[in-house]
Design brief:
The complex is a heterotrimer of chains A (about 400), B (about 290) and C (about 325). Chain A has helices spanning about 5, 10-20, 40-55, 75-90, 100-115, 145-155, 170-185, 205-215, 225-235, 255-260, 280-290, 300-320, 325-330, and strands at about 25-30, 60, 65-70, 95-100, 120, 135-140, 160-165, 190-195, 215-220, 245-250, 270, 335-340, 340-345, 350-365, 370-380. Chain A is an alpha/beta fold and about 400 residues long. In chain A, strands 7, 8, 9, 10, 11, 12, 13, 14 and 15 form a nine-stranded mixed β-sheet that branches. Classes of the chains: A alpha/beta (about 400), B mainly alpha (about 290), C mainly alpha (about 325). Chain A: One of its GO terms (biological process) is amino acid transport.
Amino acid sequence: MKLKNAVALGVTLSAVVTGAAFADTIRVGVIAPFSGPFALYGTQYEQAIAAYQAKHGTSVGEHEIEFIFRDSGGINPDLSRSLAQELLIRDQVDYLAGFTFTPNALAVAPLITQSETPTVIFNAATSSINRDSEFFLRTSFTLWQVSAPIADWAYDQGIRTVITTVADYGPGIDAENGFTAAFEARGGEVIDAVRMPLSTTDFTPFLQSVRAAEPDAVFVFVPGGPTTFAYTRTYNENGLREAGIEFLGTAETEESNLQALGDAAIGLNTAYHYSAAHDSDMNREFLAAIAEMDDPAAVNWASVGAYDGVHLIYEMIEAAGSDGPAAVEHALGLEWESPRGPLVMDPESRTVIQNVYHRVVQRNEETGLLENFETGIIATVGDLGWDQ
Amino acid sequence: MGLFLNIVVDGVAYGMILFMIAVGLSVTMGLMRVVNLAHGGFAMIGGALAHVFGTQMGLGFGLTLLLALAGTIAIALPLERVIYRRVYGFGELQQVLATIGLTFLMIATVNWWLGSTLLAVAMPEILNQSVDLGFRTLPAHRIAVIGLGLSVTLGLWILIDRTRFGVRLRAAVDNRAIASAHGINTDRIYMITFGLGAGLAALGGIMGAELLPIDAYYPLRYMVLFLIVVAVGGMGSILGSFLAAIGLGLLETATRYLVPDLSTITFFALVIALLAMRPQGLLGRE
Amino acid sequence: MRNLIAPLALILLGVALFFLFPYNLAFATRIVIMVILVLSLDLVLGYAGIPTLGQGAMYGAGAYAAGLFAIHIWADPFAGLIAGALAGAILALISGFVLMRASGLTLIMLTIAVASICHEIANRARGVTGGADGLRGIRMDPVFGIFEFDFIGVTGYWYTFGVAALVFAFLVILVRSPFGLGLRGIHESPDRMMAIGAPVYWRRLAAYVVGGAIAGIAGALTAQISQLVSLETFAFALSAEAMIMLILGGMGRLYGAAIGTVVFMWVHHTAAANDPFNWLFVIGAMVLAVVFFLPSGLISLPAAVTRLIKGGRNGGA
């Protein structure tokens, strides 16, 4: 029996509010930033969900599926938790989804465990989130999952010495560890590990130091938006490229800010699980569906994370309706085809096993726009950070 | 030696960008004594207009810069008449609240108009090159900013210390009632000075966009940075802001070369130490 | 008798919140916690006249202290509050030695710098604090050993509300004490107080420390209710929002702090729910309207309305 239903107050009062709803409507609460500097995520989730529903309908079997959106602003675990409570108690949702930031996901862990609510993470990428509740399922990626493959790729290209430059916060440290472990396992050498304060606006000092040390490549992880913009600009302007120091990154060239980076971005190497330029019919269909929306947002990993997340929720509802534990049971080991390629929900880490591609930024001659061109698959891996 | 030169070159270049962005604030806040938290908003408006004219419409850089500055001032002057004119008379905290409210409206407007992603400002080819200094290279746009910063400092100094307008401005700021009694049109002086501050903000926003890229949340993201420059420099002193910006640029750059891991803590600790020793700032009066 | 109306109204408001938002108790609880933080700011800013945009430093210190205390030492809620209050007070004391020598913009910048340093320390000490992922694993014992923190948040709400009522009562007594009156005097005319021999520096420091302790209590409550502490507790945005709420409600009145917080958070919540993309328009317009038409804050609204209705010649603002 669900705890939330066991509380008399919740049941009596909610009957008044939701009395009109059909018994077979299953609600999914989406907690994501719809306002503030990260509002793009919310738009992307919303449009990916709409695209999925346009193609697959709004019902599965006898269940009508309804999405309820709630704005978490930026990193705000207190708000995230209270929104989850509101969704679970008042709106009687049976599934939760969204979650862009790690603290916001962690804040709901006790709630979803107690109420046995399957919760699909569309983005938050710290491995250990899934350890806090067995009801977490993740359709995005983890930082280890993408930063270890770029190390493999680099070693295969003959790169032997690297300096890592990461933003000095949780995700940056994760990326640094993932890269270093994989690179050193192959026999490469990380000659320096620089951690740059999050508030950095001028990266010149860090990149000048890198240049002076003359490694074969520099690995980077910085948060998206202004920081990435300033970093890539500075990388180019300080002549690291001319000095032959390769750029190794992950999400730095993501699609929502790629055009703003301009020609400076051409030739940058990244390893990632999704590029909007992925060559498949399913991806082209996905892009076309988003393009039909009013005011379509740029499609990037967040869009595809949400799209696959909805697919997973539909699968779970079809198999188990509103029975949380049975739904999670069904999801484990599930395989499906996504716009990014084939996916398997890893039964152990509850993060998808997927292809990680090597990409290089180039200008598409037809559209004149910059894109992440996939040169090939580096590895097909699950969450490499799970056992760390 | 190489390290020392690097710190000096990068520090001065970075400091000059800080100065360019903060100098408008030291005009409105330092000279006119209005706690203008919406300063970053005007910088953002300038940057956003430059994005629209330059990147979206493809106009040349010179024309873009001119239109963006004119556009920002055209927005600032009515705001001065309708809102700021009354804000001058408020207490400090009411000024904080009013200008924060205004900042929110600016952010919401740009967010609604252009979205929340980065708004790239296209630089002319010549500024995108790297210039060889012998021992290393430096991006041309930073050299341009250094030149521009020096000329703005000189220009403001001449304007405020050497012209009739400057005399009147100082009189109006020191004692508005007496200045009015002497037949100085203080309303007009305030309006012109405010427009100057907004124009400088826009210029700084555009020229600094390579380092502090423009987006809808720019005014809040960098608010503290602007305020620190003015506070360290001392209220009412353009030269103080100049020295503070260069000093802070050198300081931040030095900590990033020497103690990259601890640079934020070191930076703020030194700022605290400085302000504790000189609460009025480097060249502040009072 | 008249003195009882306002506190009773406040208690009624608290009870009303419980029944008005039976499904949103978590939200109501967040409001009450924020009221405590804004009250601490009212003491510091409204009474002692110390402008600060760094009250988040003490709030965050209280949150981490209470969280760590619950995880490693004792999970009793009240003991956690004491830990939070102590942490806030100690941080306020240490930083206050330097801060209270400054004033105006310089002081504001110093308070921001202190909060930034705290943020950076908590970020770097990730072995202890969890860094950017947040401090997790906080599980509280029942209140008084009886009332478990429940899923809906009933216990959480009454517990928080009770603490808020105590803090409020304490502040009402404090601001009417000789100490509080002295603060008011310093605020209005520091020179005169100095002239009559009042230890201005030490009184301001004492007010800052008491304010720090209360902010620490607010932080401790947030850690206990959310079971997670994030770096954002130190964020500039939080301190700035607290200040907006205070000025919105009206400074130096205590009730203003409560009203400003409830109105701001309620408008924010409603506007964000209706149009998440553009709610900032609503907040910005509201802030501007208040500052222009009700310069003493929302608490002066009844008086302003009375003036308007009477339409007396002396009514002009």
